[in-house]
Amino acid sequence: EVQLLESGGGLVQPGGSLTLSCAASGFTFSGDGMSWVRQAPRKGLEWVSGITGSGGSTYYADSVKGRFTISRDNSKNTLYLQMSSLRAEDTAIYYCAKYLGPHHVFDYWGQGTLVTVSS
Amino acid sequence: DIQMTQSPSTLSASVGDRVTITCRASQSFTSWLAWYQQKPGKAPKLLIYRASSLESGVPSRFSGSGSGTEFTLTISSLQPEDFATYYCQQYNNYPWTFGQGTKVEIK
After folding, report:
1. Is any Cβ of chain B less than 8 angstroms from the Cβ of A46?
2. Using the beta-carbon criterion (under 8 Å), do B96 and A47 form an inter-chain contact?
């Protein structure tokens, strides 16, 4: 059974940093690209960042480029999102999600971790 | 970026109704479009990918169609568990973008 378990969310002040983790199990982690998708309170879905199975290529939304870094450790089956220079508008539930094979759609999602940026 | 616009934003329907949700893209592309269902407090669930391919385990009352700039999600006979918010997502170009969502409510 595929499982994705996010952790690392919490309350952080504007300008601060936070690192999210996503522990994966139930599939060959290194074989699948992964992404982070966020959802601000009572708002829609926003793709944040993606990474290929090898970790060799990364992609970002313009809203986070230069502030967020996606990475993965295939030996630990874990996906990361390092977030810095956080802003109030980064407040959201952050989901890690697995790509459906070669399709850049998300067939499995974690339960989400809440990041709140506030003073 | 490709902008995705869903209509309607809210839809009131009854059990057994046929429901259609439309997603329009700001640029034309072939079939790299997906549909998701999200219930309150839960992660989204993939329903359809490549515009019309049904994800494994999804009931056949869900179907997708379209290409170019207009795509549709159809629920042939609405069931009680289908009341939720639905999102389209394009994956033709980075950044992947979602529609704003369509909430299907009980009439």
Report:
1. yes
2. yes
Q: Is A97 helix (H, G, I), strand (E, B) or coil?
A: strand
Query: Given a cut of 90, is residue A98 above it in pLDDT?
Result: yes
**Cα separation, A100 vs A7, whole angstroms:** 23
Residues of B in contact with A100 (CB under 8 A): 46, 49, 55
DSSP secondary structure string, B72-89?
Answer: EEEESS--GGG-SEEEEE
Is residue A34 predicted with pLDDT exceeding 90? yes
| A60 with B95: Cβ contact below 8 A | yes
- Residue-wise pLDDT for B17-72, tens only, equals 999 999 999 999 989 999 999 999 999 999 999 999 999 999 999 999 999 999 99
- Kindly list the residues from chain A whose CB atom is less than 8 angstroms away from the CB atom of residue B36: 45, 106
